[in-house]
Model the fold of this input.
Amino acid sequence: MASISDIDKNKLPNHVAIIMDGNGRWAQQHNKERIFGHQNGVSSVREVTEAAAEIGINYLTLYAFSTENWNRPKAEVDALMGLLVSTIHSEVETLNKNKIRLWAIGNLKSLPANCYNELMDAIQQTSKNTRLTLVLALSYSAKWEIIDAVKKISEKAKKNEISTKEIDEKMFASSLCTNGIPDPELLIRTSGEQRISNFLLWQIAYSELYFTEKLWPDFHKEDFFEAICDFQNRERRFGKTSEQIKVNNKQ
Ligand code: IPE
Ligand code: IPE
Ligand code: MG
Done:
């Protein structure tokens, strides 16, 4: 099991994204309702956020609720929204104490009003913090985000504010809700599933993917450090040859 001392502080990812999966199966293993799993998942959120801040990661994005999750039974959706409101409310103080800035991406207007308001309050109250930016993906899906970006760009083109020639990767990226946030170098998914489930499709074009069997409520600081160590042992080639990378590293 990895510990903080195994991590090379000079090779840290700037941004780590996590698909927090497996709460329902964790509850099942404990003979409890699914919401019990979500409640216990909150402690993993707290631990991993602290771990990321401790080692000096600048951005941590957590997939908390997808567009597709709206299709779950109403009782589970309501319970998740309730949990979100109470967690955001109770964590603001700790976020400020740890100098963590809260941010959110997704179709936030589709959240229940009390949830949206609580979120906006917490974002505002933590806006001056500079240590780590914690991004919650809520009512988020990458296809929704991409279509939304296409709409914004075509509106501008229609009004002749931009020409088609100007549309490039930079402009497209700045029309996504992750505008201003660097792409994640590392994407972690818990629970053994090896899929992306409509998360950050554009932004993970060159991310390293890390899958673990651990269910989200069982994912602790050491598991996070282990994922970081695994990342640090990979060679990121970006289409080049291994030799080219080695020469560059020596320079
Ligand atoms: C992840 O756990 C949390 C959310 C998607 C909100 P799940 O609820 O998907 O747990 P499993 O995958 O059913 O075990
Ligand atoms: C992905 O998990 C969404 C979140 C973690 C919020 P799901 O459990 O919803 O994904 P699928 O259904 O297994 O693809
Ligand atoms: Mg799941």
Summary: The CA atoms of residues 181 and 214 lie 28 Å apart. The radius of gyration is 19 Å. The chain is about 45% helix and 15% strand.
